[in-house]
């Protein structure tokens, strides 16, 4: 019970890594709010987890949705202790000279603006709680550029940068802010990209699994990481070594 009674919001919690985080966090005693645009899957996970979990439908690019999520969380479980900004999208490789402006703006809105909104709207609640931990899910593409993925790379570098700026500002309130940078983790977002040839390029010779990232999320959400803030946690099987 490393997270007993901590109130935690996980965005994009209905599938992939988010769903794995939700289950591990709840298993450590947290009260978890799952948000996603995938209503059916999110509601099912919350039901399976019982009274310490709740699903709220949320589009992370929508400011009104963010206000609603924080209000409803406080009303149901109390002030927010932890926010996991996990929701994100990827798009297929595209040549820069043909890259659609619409796609660029969409990726930036979902992956980057959402993290700004999430931090902005949750901080007053964390101040009420006397501190907190914000875990921003970036990517290895927030450390090194991803081939033909200009928008994804831009958004994930931005998440890494905003994490550091927010950590500097929020430290005095006992709010820690860190980023996680996964390499290839097997989820619905990446399973079509992972193959035997690819994984031979990684020192550990395999892709990662969502539960391995969830262990890191639990650590950063818990008081075990009490002196970690403004840091980037790479979890990539050695790909970036
Ligand atoms: P995933 O399986 O696609 O899960 C992402 C979840 O976010 C989905 O349920 C998705 O719903 C939801 N979502 C998308 N747009 C949203 C919006 N506007 N509002 C609310 N929810 C929204 O992806 P994942 O692989 O678990 O990725 C989770 C995070 O890790 C993402 O930020 C991703 O960029 C990052 N990441 C993943 C990897 C990897 O190898 N998998 C590596 C590095 C970083 P829909 O299915 O409807 O889109």
Structure description:
- This protein is α/β, with parallel strands linked by helices and about 240 residues long.
- It has a single domain, classed as NAD(P)-binding Rossmann-like Domain (Rossmann fold, 3-Layer(aba) Sandwich), CATH 3.40.50.
- Helix content is about 45%, strand content about 15%.
- The protein has a seven-stranded parallel beta sheet, sandwiched between helices.
- Helix 1 (about 15-25) links the parallel strand 1 and strand 2.
- Helix 4 (about 100-130) runs parallel beside helix 5.
- The longest helix has 29 residues, at about 100-130.
- The radius of gyration is 17 Å and the shape is globular.
- The mean pLDDT is about 100.
- It binds NADP nicotinamide-adenine-dinucleotide phosphate (NAP).
- NADP nicotinamide-adenine-dinucleotide phosphate binds near residues 14, 17 and 18.
Mean pLDDT across residues? 98
H-E order: EHEHEHEHEHEHHE
From the N-terminal CA to the C-terminal CA, the straight-line distance is 33 Å
Number of strands: 7
If you compute it from the alpha carbons, what radius of gyration comes out, rounded to the nearest whole angstrom?
Answer: 17 Å
State the helicity in percent bands.
40-55%
Strand arrangement within the widest β-sheet reads: 3-2-1-4-5-6-7
Largest sheet: 7 strands, parallel
CATH level-four homologous superfamily name: NAD(P)-binding Rossmann-like Domain
């Amino acid at each position: 019970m490393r997270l007993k009674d901590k109130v935690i919001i996980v965005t994009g919690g209905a599938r992939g890594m988010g769903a794995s985080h939700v289950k591990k966090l709840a298993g450590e005693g947290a009260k978890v709010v799952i948000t996603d645009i995938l209503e059916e899957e999110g509601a099912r996970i919350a039901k399976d987890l019982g009274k310490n979990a709740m699903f709220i439908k949320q589009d992370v690019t929508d400011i009104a949705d963010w206000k609603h999520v924080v209000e409803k969380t406080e009303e149901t479980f109390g002030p927010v202790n932890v926010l996991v900004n996990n929701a994100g999208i990827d798009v297929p490789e595209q040549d820069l000279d043909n890259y659609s402006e619409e796609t660029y703006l969409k990726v930036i809105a979902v992956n980057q603006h959402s993290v700004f909104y999430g931090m902005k709207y949750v901080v007053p609640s964390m101040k009420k709680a006397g501190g907190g931990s914000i875990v921003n899910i970036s990517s290895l593409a927030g450390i090194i550029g991803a081939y033909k993925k200009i928008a994804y790379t831009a958004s994930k570098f931005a998440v890494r940068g905003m994490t550091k700026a927010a950590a500097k500002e929020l430290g005095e309130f006992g709010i820690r802010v860190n980023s996680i940078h996964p390499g290839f983790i097997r989820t619905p977002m990446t399973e079509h990209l992972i193959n035997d040839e690819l994984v031979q390029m990684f020192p550990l010779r395999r892709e990662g699994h969502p539960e391995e990232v969830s262990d890191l999320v639990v650590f950063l959400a818990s008081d075990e990481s009490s002196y970690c803030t403004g840091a980037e946690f790479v979890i990539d099987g050695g790909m970036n070594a």
